[in-house]
Give the backbone structure.
Amino acid sequence: MQKRILYSSILILLTSFITFLICFKTMRSSVVYVNNKKIFTEFNMTKELKTAGEKQLEFKNSQLDTIQFLLKNAPDEATNSLLMQRFIDKKHEVEEFQNNFTQSNSEKIWGRISTYAKDFAELNGYELIIDSDGKKTVLYGEKGKDVTLPLLNYINKKYEGFQ
């Protein structure tokens, strides 16, 4: 009788332990990582804003080229001085445009990515999504914990209005 109780107890403990291991293995991790650089550069919003900025910059540079052409063909010193001042002003305007465009759009893009990443995390039961780009914020990450591509697909679909 005691042997039977002992065997039953061992069997119950062994079954409980195996069940625990199976459950532990199949549970999804609540901590995952992404490559922020890839998320940022391959986000459709980033690509769209970059294209728009390049068109604006191209237009501004063509204006600079026109002023530079006029400078080379200036009929007199007074016109040359006037054109030189316009060239310098336009050059500063182009530099300011580049700096402001990059900064303001980066903030907009990261704001949108953060909003979408929060939705993605809630949808998938993640408590934490950490960065793993080249800055070594994550020294090691198991391949199965990398959700860069699923997050990228999610935010692009969300941005395009499909999610």
Helices lie at 2-26, 36-42, 44-72, 77-124, 148-160. The chain has a mean pLDDT of 85. Strands lie at 31-34, 128-131.
